[in-house]
Amino acid sequence: MCQWYSLFNGCTMIFDWLDDAAEETKMFLSILMYEQVPFELPRKLWIVHHTALLPYTVRIHPFTSLTPHSCAYEYGGRESPNALVYIGGLTSGPQTSSLVLKIDSAMENMTETDTLSYSVFEFRMRSSYTGFGYSSLKNDVEDLAALVRYLKGESVGKEKVVLMGSSTGCQAIMTYATTLPASPPVNGYILQAPTSDRETASLLMPPKFLHTSLQHAEDLIAEGKEMQIMPSDLIPPIFSSPISAYRWHSLVSVGGDDDFFSSDLPASTHESSFGRLGKPTLIIVSGKDEIVPPNVDKEALLKKWVDAMPMGLASDQSGVLPDADHELTTDGRTRSFMDKACRFLKDLEKIG
Predict the structure, then answer these.
(1) In a 3-state reduction of DSSP, which class is residue 100?
(2) Angle, in degrees to the nearest 10, between helices 245-252 and 197-204
(3) Which of 30, 159, 335, 352 has the least CB density, counted as fewest CB within 10 Å?
(4) pLDDT tens, position by position, 181-227
(5) What Gene3D superfamilies does UniProt report for this protein, alphabetically (predicted)?
(6) Cα atoms found within 13 Å of the Cα of residue 261, Cβ hemisphere only
(7) What's the order of all strands across the beta sheet hosting 2-8?
(8) Angstrom distance (rounded) from CA 164 to CA 108
(9) Do 325 and 299 form a contact (C-beta atoms < 8 A)?
(10) For 287-313, what is the mean pLDDT?
């Protein structure tokens, strides 16, 4: 046996092959990538970024996008008529979150017990992995729009497409929903653990340090150097990848492009963001989210968001999930979230 290591669309993969088949496999993948047709990865696929390191199957969909060599990864083999697209938070990308496999399992169970069927998709955006530091929500919207067009197009023909954001992925969804001219339409949104990166920064950085860091970013932007990388000594050590002055300012400044979920935002801001969510939306807040300041009243904050939304578009399943952490790491909280997500998707069927 041989192992072929490949940086495939930004994600390190290891394939176990017989020695005499390795070169044929490389050629097979190269042709499929060039021709841009969906294909399934045979034999064992190991995703190095994934914590469990257990084999599972994905179907790869190359599609046209502003991001070179774009691919979407479809979990399972259900050939479902509908698509649930997962967008993770900062530093995440395809095959980095164990939550996605749990979502896929829930969708498979729903298929077995109901007539409703969804395939789960992930895809690489310009902001995936370390790219978040020098990308933008505008880029996320362009990348999402390309995938939605592909999924709804003639070659795939998904009947419904629902976008699910986790953590900072929720900001991508909010921007997608509120961008003009309008992005390609989808059928619904799921926001899991929407949180304020600005308020998270206040937990990681003393006020004086945060002020100095933000001032440096603002100075660079004023000089027309918004894409210059922030000095590492002005960024919390939790971030090990480069971050541009623009993206840092977007994440941690009041009214920055990423500032959708801060608890101190006025009602007028909610009206221009949540008030423009034109599709049914499920919002699930984690009751014990470790990156939310402890003084934030999550129930009250969620009510502000829901009250700002158009009448009837906030799902009745929305709420604060007691004892849930940011990434839903406990099985009990994960199941509770999945139950709400499945009910939400079933409710979409009633709308048509």
Answers:
(1) helix
(2) 100
(3) 352
(4) 889 999 999 999 999 999 999 999 999 999 999 999 999 999 999 99
(5) alpha/beta hydrolase
(6) 32
(7) 2-8, 11-17, 45-47
(8) 17
(9) no
(10) 97
Residues shown for the chain: 352
Give the containing element (helix H, strand E) for 83: strand 82-87
Q: Residue-wise over 144-158: b if at least 16 C-beta within 10 A, else e?
A: bbbbbbbbbeeebeb
Cα–Cα distance for residue pair 256/206, rounded to 1 Å: 20
Kindly state which CATH superfamily the domain 60-196+268-351 is placed in: Alpha/Beta hydrolase fold, catalytic domain (3.40.50.1820)
Measured CA distances, 75 to 154, 251, 319 (Å): 20, 31, 28
Answer whether residue 302 shows pLDDT above 80. yes
The 3-state DSSP class for residue 326 equals coil
In three-state secondary structure terms, 6 is strand
* Tokens, residue 260: 């959708």
DSSP 156: T
CA 330 – CA 287 distance, rounded (Å): 13
Dihedral sign of CA atoms 242, 296, 174, 71 in order: positive
